User: Fold this.
Amino acid sequence: MRNFIAHPEHGIVWISGASSGIGRALALKLAGEGYRVAVTARNHEKLVELQLEAAGLPGSIIVLDGDVTDAEDMEHVMASIEYEHGALAMAILCAGVYRPVHGEDLHRADFEKTFAVNLSGVVNCLLPAIRHMKAKGQGQIAIVSSVTGYTGFPTSAAYGATKAALINMAESLKFDLDKIGIRIQLINPGFVDTPATRKNAFHMPALVSPETAAERIAAGLKSQAFEITFPRRFTYVLKFLRILPYGLYFALVNRFTGWGERPANSSHRPVTPHPAE
Assistant:
């Protein structure tokens, strides 16, 4: 039996973290394909700008403000979709933050904020979305993780930990969601050119634009694939790295990133938003 694939006639697409980065580009891409897209983020002004930019496209943008770290907020967003706009056909959970972590200068707030947005924020959206889709007997969910979830990288002790958790979460949920007609997919992008990634202190190979990322994701959402990952020439190298012996893995990553040559960091870095926030 083929998995459910959401089309515009099936109902609303809900995208969290749509004010910038991948979420924003994907909202415009899907609206251009005729979908009605409900967008959620904390920044109301950016969502309104997105809505205006989508004017004239075959689909439309519906602004629904909300903070993914607030479970009650996400319940209200889901209720608004259900009672004011129609059935939820697909949820794409993009919201996230990236706070660089240095082992020699640890701060609890970096972990707490990252976990609250990237992990608990996904759960806060998943629960009402799955409950709605279960009642309808069908639905599609896509969770945006990252290739940093495959294995550890410099400055990613908090961010990578949440992305690894999302990968495991999606894999685990698939066993049960398949039985009730809800299709779940995992999105693992490589490096995407955003204000946040430009602050990375290492070379980023195979960098793609948010628009290219949106095109790859939109195509993947219409496929039968569980994982949507790109660009494969880069992400498949990372898949290979994670099966290497640790001694070889750490040596290669230090060389690849140049991290082994860098002095220890003694000052806390400024907070930078993840492109999907």
